[in-house]
């Protein structure tokens, strides 16, 4: 089967940073599905794993996590899917990735593709949607069903125009929250407003004075999707006493937890690969949330975050997509379709 991988970790403008290879078609074992991949999307984690480092692979390393496709085979322990089902998912960091014609994935982290989305639209969502959903509803413990109670509460989403932010804004609004999203450019400000953000501020400026202009002295929740180190003190200033802060971006320098101490603030990480990496007892929750997300999409409550589609899936186009994501200025998601 066709696949795109790497042997060396090189700058993306190097033609060997991602190369085309031929691999044996994998088999579905245990609770795995064998999926014929129709579309894939590129995330910052793809760029991070591929980034230059002093290391070389003996066999091609296949990157990629987001995918949509058609189930070709099911393992003997599968109960959730059958051949012919259209699915979408984000795979595991510990297994070969989705830059391949066929891919094996544990069915417990797979959802049925939304009927109203094509494969490209569906492929744009899994990693970012799982991250947003887990961050809001598992880590920050917001109850999506308590919309009346949540109307009294507010959330600051730092990095609102990116892939995760684009989903998080929509989910937070569904939960009834007042949403303040950061966006530093006119085009990104317009995008987050289209997604439902009530207010926008600039994350390159002090956070507290900006939210005060909208009548807020604090927010109940902060969801940090951009540069935890840069925003740490600012998040400590804007969060309400006994509030909750969640980040998805690892820190580069030690974080001073005393910033949160006097307010008794809860700080929690969100990493959507945790369940699949450690085979947690609640691993199937990713199947469940993707299934629920499909229902929300088909009910017209969640819109696509797809902004650009590139075809076909090959090394040249993947390098182009990586370069787009690497700039850090992506609005929404970029997807590649069709091998």
Automatic annotation (TrEMBL):
CDD domains: AL_MDR. SMART domains: PKS_ER (SM00829). Residues 14-336 form the Enoyl reductase (ER) domain. InterPro entries: ADH-like_C, ADH-like_N, ADH_Zn_typ-1, ER, GroES-like_sf, NAD(P)-bd_dom_sf, Zinc-ADH_QOR/CCCR. Keywords: Metal-binding, NADP, Oxidoreductase, Zinc. GO terms for molecular function: oxidoreductase activity; zinc ion binding. It comes from the Bacteria. PANTHER family: QUINONE OXIDOREDUCTASE. Belongs to the zinc-containing alcohol dehydrogenase family. Quinone oxidoreductase subfamily. This is Zinc-type alcohol dehydrogenase-like protein.
